[in-house]
Amino acid sequence: MEINQYIEKAKHGDQSAYTFLLDHYWNEVYAFMLKRTENETDAEDITIETFSKAFDKISVYNPEFQFNTWLIAIAKNVHIDLIRKRKKALFLDITDEDDQLAYDVADSAPSAEDKLITEQNLSSLLQCIKQLKPHYQEVIQLRFFQELSYQEISDTLGEPLSNVKVKLLRAKKLLAEIIESKR
């Protein structure tokens, strides 16, 4: 099937078309942003936001232009927005509470829930999940362990619904790759 056919399917809400487009263009957008930002976390965040915005606005995509060019243009704008937010944040007052949060470091030791899951023969899955980046671990945990809806996850994280959907898509794909590599 041609890319334009997937784009048309995505315009009509076909989830598999979204997944195909995400998988097909993820590395290109991510590599472009990694080169620009020289920071893996920023590149990944910008790429997630790019796909989120693209999927929200796919109905206005003009097929006269290459889809990857459109995605890169969105990524550039997201990057500019990130830079502006950071410049603005440089002038914010930091409270003692905010300062203390910077010193709170996540404990990587297994929790009581981790031990219970291990006892229930889910330790292998949990170890795979722990190999994901923390923001992917979080969406997997909220969706599949706390059984929150996409909207509830969006509200909990304070992120747009489309970002949550893209993060979950990406997290599931990466988790599947980790599980497959252990076989």
Can you walk me through this structure?
The protein folds into two domains: 3-89, Rna Polymerase Sigma Factor, Chain: A, CATH 1.10.1740; 109-182, Arc Repressor Mutant, subunit A (Orthogonal Bundle), CATH 1.10.10. The chain has helices at 3-11, 15-37, 40-56, 67-89, 96-103, 112-119, 123-130, 134-145, 150-157, 161-182. It has ten helices and no strands. The mean pLDDT is 84. By secondary structure, the chain is mainly α. Belongs to the sigma-70 factor family. ECF subfamily. Pfam families: Sigma70_r2 (PF04542), Sigma70_r4_2 (PF08281). Keywords: Sigma factor, Transcription, Transcription regulation. One of its GO terms (biological process) is DNA-templated transcription initiation. Residues 22-88 form the RNA polymerase sigma-70 region domain.
Write the layout of secondary structure elements.
Layout: H1 3-11, H2 15-37, H3 40-56, H4 67-89, H5 96-103, H6 112-119, H7 123-130, H8 134-145, H9 150-157, H10 161-182
